[in-house]
Amino acid sequence: MTLAPERPLTVTPARPERPVGGALVDQFELGLDAPICLTWELTYACNLECAHCLSSSGRRDPDELTTEQCEAVIDELQRMQVFYVNIGGGEPTIRPDFWHLLEYAVAHDVGVKFSTNGVRITPERARFLASTDYVDVQISLDGATAEVNDYVRGPGSYDTAITALQNLQDAGFVDAKISVVCTRENIGQLDEFKALADSFDATLRLTRMRPSGRGADVWDELHPLPHQQRELYDWLVANGENVLTGDSFFHLAAFGEPLPGLNLCGAGRVVCLIDPVGDVYACPFAIHDQFHAGNLLRDGGFDNVWKTSPLFTELRSPQTGGACTKCSHFDACRGGCMAAKFFTGLPLDGPDPECVKGYGETALAGERTIPAQSQDHSKSNPTRNQPVMLQLLTRRPDGSSDGSGVPVSACAESPLAGFSPTDPTGDPLAAASPSGGCGCSAGGAH
Amino acid sequence: MLDEPWTLSPSVALRPEPFGALAYHFGNRKLSFLKRPELVAVVRGLGDAPDVRSALVAAGVPDAQHDAYAAALEGLAATDMIRPRTEVPA
């Protein structure tokens, strides 16, 4: 088991004075009374086993919030005036009470945008969605062709997504979103993605691949190469007005002019994540003990966690830019993505692993330790939905990720690989399962 | 604009924030930020004021700043956060 690098502690004696007026970014850095962008993963259960899943989803957690608890969360979001929530998973639509919770949220002034692989978007459900207000649907697709998509998302997942988009269009649902994680495999398909979105009267949404969850296992193989980062930036500059990005490419701002949107890490300031068991994390890409702010069942509700958690207080205090402050591009990228640094084992006050000035590559070449996952809901046994690439690639047993050498499953060397008697999730299934980090569950044919 | 009656759109909610408020339009799902408490007071007061100028005065905005505030209000009008009031308030 490897130790995660410590977050640099910045000790601030008092909360800084808030400026009046001025740039919004300066206000956001100090945090808001409630999040603007709240992601709520409703379940870790999923019909797919995407190779790069941020939340290492697959199996339902036995401690998943009940319907009543979810309703109480929605009531609280209404009180806090969180006007909309991004619902994801896992695959949220396979929760039996998903459609009920959707209607409950909308009825309580909490608009819903949900991410789905499309598995439950039947013609009937599509007609229901078309009849609602305040609901946005985001279909995940990581390739403009079945070949590229199914390589990471699993066999049949392209057809599932296209069928869902077709059902939505046929039902008259207006402006669905197609959500793409940009990878080395699909950067060359940006025009095709746009054409596909146009053909369904949908809006294209591009987001950054993060080395979070199972994404850490495949990041070396899938994250865009330096010249592809440039290709992506140029494409966004040319097409950005009609494409959503979730402000996720602010690390590319150092190429030149900033991209539209908020060029700032919003973690714990304007963004956060509620997971299926009520744990609150600083951002959707940081499901790890290091970024755990509290639990809404145990710590007095979401409002209390948001306003009083020591982690969030720290994130809202002035951050030291560390080595990056000396860089002339620091004002543009502000050091990049905290989660991307953390999960590649880089210091949080150093460059982003995909720093467009190349400082990330230098840092990656140095000594670093990839942090162990602190939770994993991946399926323990292979299923027919598993992406093929996982048969070729597994988490490397020594935690290194230099991409050299033959990937070897830890299970090949130790029958207890990945077993930790002090499993931090407290989930007896995860602790006893060999899937707790060695990746052999996903590897299949060992 | 200054002499016209305006109001907050019915589908807009204002959430107080330390810097002012956040305005959310449930219809077009646009989010706007009101970066000064005075602007929040103006926007809240529009519906009850005979015209925009009166709302500015009631919120304590000095005359010299009325044009700047009108520009900010035009920006909010562009996304239907506020809209011209046609009917006479009851």
Layout of helices and strands, plus pairs?
The complex is a heterodimer of chains A (446) and B (90).
Chain A lengths: L23 H6 L7 E5 L25 H13 L4 E5 L9 H10 L3 E6 L6 H8 L4 E6 L5 H8 L3 H14 L6 E6 L7 H10 L3 E6 L6 H8 L3 H14 L3 E2 L26 E4 L4 E3 L10 E4 L6 H7 L1 H6 L14 H4 L4 H6 L15 H7 L62 H5 L7 H4 L3
Parallel strand pairs in A: 1-2, 1-8, 2-3, 3-4, 4-5, 5-6, 6-7
Antiparallel strand pairs in A: 8-9, 9-10
Chain B lengths: L5 E3 L3 E6 L2 E6 L5 E4 L2 H9 L6 H7 L7 H13 L3 E3 L6
Antiparallel strand pairs in B: 1-5, 2-3, 3-4
Helix pairs in contact in B: 1-2
Notes on the structure:
- Chain B: This is Mycofactocin binding protein MftB.
- Chain B: It holds the Pfam family MftB_chaperone.
- The complex is a heterodimer of chains A (446) and B (90).
- Chain A has 446 residues and is α/β, with parallel strands linked by helices.
- Chain A is built from 16 helices and 10 strands.
- Chain A has helices at residues 24-29, 67-79, 98-107, 123-130, 146-153, 157-170, 190-199, 215-222, 226-239, 302-308, 310-315, 330-333, 338-343, 359-365, 428-432, 440-443, and strands at 37-41, 84-88, 111-116, 135-140, 177-182, 203-208, 243-244, 271-274, 279-281, 292-295.
- A 10-stranded mixed β-sheet of chain A has the order 7-6-5-4-3-2-1-8-9-10.
- In chain A, helix 4 (123-130) links the parallel strand 3 and strand 4.
- In chain A, helix 4 crosses helix 6.
- The model of chain A is unreliable at 1-13, 394-408 and 421-446 (pLDDT under 50).
- With 90 residues, chain B is an alpha+beta fold.
- Chain B has one domain.
- Chain B has helices spanning 37-45, 52-58, 66-78, and strands at residues 6-8, 12-17, 20-25, 31-34, 82-84.
- In chain B, the strands form 2 sheets. A 3-stranded antiparallel β-sheet of chain B has the order 2-3-4, covered by helices on one side. A two-stranded antiparallel sheet of chain B has the order 1-5.
- In chain B, a hairpin with a 2-residue loop joins strand 2 (12-17) and strand 3.
- The relative contact order of chain B is 0.27.
- The A-B interface holds A 18, 20-22, 24, 27, 30, 32-34, 36, 81, 83-84, 109, 111, 133-134, 136 and B 13, 15-19, 22, 24, 26-27, 29, 31, 33, 35-36.
